[in-house]
Amino acid sequence: MSARKTVKDTTSVCPECLAAIPASVVVKQEKIYLSKTCAQHGSFEDLYWSSKDLYDRASSYATRGAEPASRQTDSKNGCPRDCGLCPNHKNLTILAVMDITNLCNAKCPTCFASSDKKKEYVYEPSIEQIRLMLDSMAGDIHAMQLTGGEPTLRPDLHQIIYEAKLRDINHIELNTNGIVFASSRGTQLTKSLEGMFGDETLKKGLSTVYLKFNGFSPATWEATTGDPDWGNIPLRAVENIKKGYSDKRRSPGIMLVPTLINGLNTYEIGDIIRYAMRESYVIRGVNFQPVSFAGSMSTRDLERMRYTLSDLFMDVEEQTKGDIKAEDFFPISCVSPFAETVWYWKGRGMPSFACHPHCGSMTALFIHDDDFVPVSRYVDMDKFFVLLQKAATCFMEGKNTRGKINVIRALTGIKRKGIGPLLPLVKDVAGDVDNWTALGRLLLHMVFIGGMHFMDRYNFDLERVQMCPIHQILPDGSRVPFCTYQTIHRPFLERKFSVSVDEATKNRSAQQRIMPSLAPEMRIPPGV
Ligand code: SF4
Ligand code: SF4
Residues 16, 110: one domain? Predict the structure, then answer.
């Protein structure tokens, strides 16, 4: 047996019975594994990060979470059975996830919501329930994702977005398989989402179309959607959204969301990034998601298909021929000093943006013509983060002048050489740190490449999930950390708030089940 060393002890779950069991994160042959033993079902080991060096580097950026605004449950049965949020949870809600239907027009075998399985019940909160759910979020949540199932199947989608905007949820994402956007109604749907607050205002309805985009080959389509003829759905969706797009500031941007399965579509990573760059007029980023496994897997299948964040960073480097390097990626929580600065200075956004450093990482690329360069080539990122953290602390203590000086020092640390035509935009931001329009303009020249590895029953790590800021919102107002919901609670909680298919059919006429007609009366009147 090869030498192994324990990196940390944590708690996981047994992949067979889902009981909470002790686990160790261990290093073996420069790779990181999660290892655990269930008294009833034996020992399990799963590859956690394929590079110890990249794991250690991510660990060095660990930050703390922030106190949630409210807790909805007591500590009774122990984590992860007390969700949530229970008094032990260590972070607030940054992104609220709301399933608005469990019905879907596709049957992807990799679906979190098991939309490939025949439905015995329908989970589809009514608009009245959704209003109550939104009320429970109002005040402390500013970003949400509408998902399912397939959320475009809801005839009242515009109404749901409108109700969320009424409660100051500024950033709204729509997580879609793209079928409706790829259809003949796709452009009209985009226009209606763009124009729902009227043409004269810059107020946005939908912020982001979170578009399933697993690659370009038929083998990828078949394995990830179950449909070898999935074909050009995502490409057509992007084209239709582009046609409906009239103003970058008001139109919903696109985030491509590829699910990555080791050896299946991982060779397409470079092509997906290059496609995003070509379409950067509408595509704001790519959020790669290494596959998380639902249900039980054989050890052999797990070893064959497991893909980790460090694999992603190394494949990005290889497939972009070093244009983006593994070290250009930083844990998502590195955004925290920026979020804190904005929050304490302007009272906008959110006071924290932390998640566990092993959950996700990202890099930002400056785009110019057909070329892109990671921001980290122009900035000493470590120094940048330290200066912004200092700025945040100054603003928090009311020392605004010192805060602004630290922001200017951070921005003027950007190397000018090579940044070319983007220099005036950077100068605008650095020259007038009160000018938020300039920052907005600069962001439109950037594309974000990131990865988040959602957990499953094999790599479940309670240390990570207790820090989770992505929370599923349920009809009783409870907030359940996303990976806990997917791994443990979904079957029970979804069933609890569902109705029978017959009842759902009675609740909604057959006509309503199809895509919204986008009739004028569905539009939100201008000026609201
Ligand atoms: S994941 Fe968070 S909310 Fe759920 S039981 Fe654990 S600490 Fe509590
Ligand atoms: S959803 Fe999962 S992977 Fe993402 S931050 Fe939460 S615990 Fe981490």
Answer: no
Claim to verify: residue 374 and residue 439 sit in the same structural domain: yes
Q: How far is the CA of 471 from the centre of ligand 1 (A)?
A: 11
pLDDT at 427 over 70: no
Largest CA-CA distance found in the chain, in angstroms, rounded: 69
Sign of the CA dihedral with 184 first, then 104, 355, and 170 last: positive
Q: Which domain holds residue 476?
A: 95-379+414-496
Q: Whose CA is nearest to atom 5 of ligand 2?
A: 468
Does residue 18 share a domain with residue 150? no
- Specify the DSSP class assigned to residue 515: P
Q: Report the nearest-CA residue for atom 7 of ligand 1.
A: 89
The answer on 343 and 420 residing in a single domain is yes
CATH number of the domain that 147 lies in? 3.20.20.70
Ligand nearest to the CA of 354: 2
Question: Residue 173: enclosing H or E segment and its boundaries?
Answer: strand 171-176
Reduced to 3 states (helix: H, G, I; strand: E, B; else coil), residue 394 is: helix
Highest averaged pLDDT of the listed ranges 352-356, 420-424, 448-452: 448-452
Number of domains in the chain: 2
Q: What is the DSSP letter of 201?
A: -
Same domain (yes/no): 163, 246: yes
CB of residue 85 inside a 6 A radius of ligand 1 = yes
Q: Are residues 352 and 289 in the same domain?
A: yes
Cβ distance 12 to 292 under 8 Å?
A: no
User: Does 252 map to a domain?
Assistant: yes
Mutation test of ligand 1: which of 77, 465, 487, 493 has the most ligand atoms closer than 8 Å to its C-beta?
465
What is d(CA 174, CA 206) in angstroms, rounded to the nearest whole number?
Answer: 7
Residue 463 C-alpha to ligand 1 middle, in angstroms?
Answer: 10
Mean of per-residue pLDDT scores for the chain: 85
Ligand nearest to the CA of 487: 2
| CA 161 – ligand 1 centroid, Å | 28
Quick check: bond before 134 cis, omega within 30? no
User: Distances in Å between the alpha carbon of 347 and those of 340, 343, 352, 442?
Assistant: 9, 4, 12, 21
How would you label 500-528 residue by residue, b for 16+ Cβ within 10 Å and e otherwise?
Answer: eeeebeeebeeeeeebbebeeeeebeeee
pLDDT tens track for 35-83: 999 999 999 999 999 999 999 999 999 888 888 988 999 999 999 999 9
pLDDT at 445 over 50: yes
- Nearest CA-CA partner of 281 in 216, 211, 367: 367
Instruction: Give domain status of residue 398, yes or no.
Output: no
Q: How many CA atoms lie within 13 A of 409 on its CB side?
A: 15
Looking at the structure, do residues 26 and 108 belong to the same domain, yes or no?
no
Q: Does residue 492 sit within a domain?
A: yes
385: in domain = no
Q: Are residues 287 and 143 in the same domain?
A: yes
Helices (H) and strands (E) in the chain, counts: 20, 19
Atom of ligand 2 nearest to the CA of 483: 2
